[in-house]
Design goal:
The longest helix has 15 residues. Helices cover 39% and strands 14% of the residues. The protein has 265 residues and is of the alpha/beta class. The radius of gyration is 17 Å and the shape is globular. The chain has eleven helices and seven strands.
């Protein structure tokens, strides 16, 4: 069983893995793909049970380390020795772990606000809360999924066309995948203990309007002094809410690490 991904071969430069957040889909990157093609070939992946990806029944498929191995399977299937990676929210936890697990495969990485990845284990009391949500989803299915606070129906600052596509894709989500993600993925997304070991050039595009994330921004910089940060007037989904500025920041950063360019790692 494989994760669904969409390949944009008409881009310039290395492939770039794009990983969306929880209860989102490929629509997360609609405002960014065309701009990113200037420096890469976007590879838009969807989480298990989200969008067009299938739903494994075994719990092990949802472990963070397994996601990392699946990403690397995609890289190898493309015949790429190295590529860029970019993650948003929940997806950023996965891509940051991937870069720690497979550093030689990553040219450079970009990520956005991610409480789960930069919180200390237990800091958010995630395991208990996630189990409660998982049990409710098993009982009520999509009705319970729609009540989760990070469901796209609660988004208020998205362009209408993006929001409409996200809502349509959210109706495709398999509740089995959501329950498994809450139990097997979300509580283990933290990379705070190992983020300082990151060897990959890294850019955080910070949505400064998400006030609760700002202490995580400072933590990330303290843990990894080489981390580059661009602060934008956007919230949790800064790549959508401040798309033009996000695109400029990401393109400018990734251009520096294209093979053969000054600053190549």
């Amino acid at each position: 069983m494989q994760l669904h991904f969409e390949l944009h071969e008409d881009g310039n430069g290395p492939y770039c893995l794009l990983m969306h957040g929880f209860l989102s889909s490929r629509a997360q990157w609609r405002p960014n793909v065309e701009a990113l093609k200037e420096v890469c070939k976007p590879v838009v992946v969807e989480l298990w049970g989200h969008g067009r990806s299938p739903t494994p029944r075994d719990a092990g498929s949802y472990r963070v380390e397994h996601y990392a191995s699946m990403f690397d399977d995609i890289r190898r299937s493309l015949g790429a020795t190295q590529w860029f990676v970019c993650g948003q929210s929940f997806g950023a936890g996965l891509t940051l772990r991937y870069s720690l697990q497979y550093p030689d495969a990553v040219l450079a990485q970009v990520f956005t606000n991610t409480m789960a990845a930069l919180s200390l284990p237990g800091e958010l009391a995630r395991a208990v809360r996630m189990e409660i949500h998982a049990e409710q989803i098993e009982r009520e299915g999509l009705d319970a999924v729609r009540k989760l606070p990070f469901h796209p129906r609660f988004a208020r600052r998205f362009p209408h066309d993006i929001h409409r596509e996200m809502l349509a894709d959210a109706e495709r989500i398999d509740p089995v995948a959501v329950a498994n993600a809450l139990r097997q993925t979300s509580p283990f997304l933290s990379v705070a203990a190992s983020f300082g070991e990151t060897r990959v050039p890294t850019l955080l595009v910070n949505g400064s309007r998400e006030t609760r994330f700002q202490p995580m921004r400072e933590r990330a910089k303290n843990l990894l002094p080489t981390l580059e940060i661009v602060d934008l007037e956007g919230g949790h989904s800064v790549n959508i809410e401040a798309a033009k500025d996000f695109n400029a920041a990401a393109v400018g950063f990734l251009r520096r690490y294209q093979p053969g360019e000054p600053g190549f790692w």
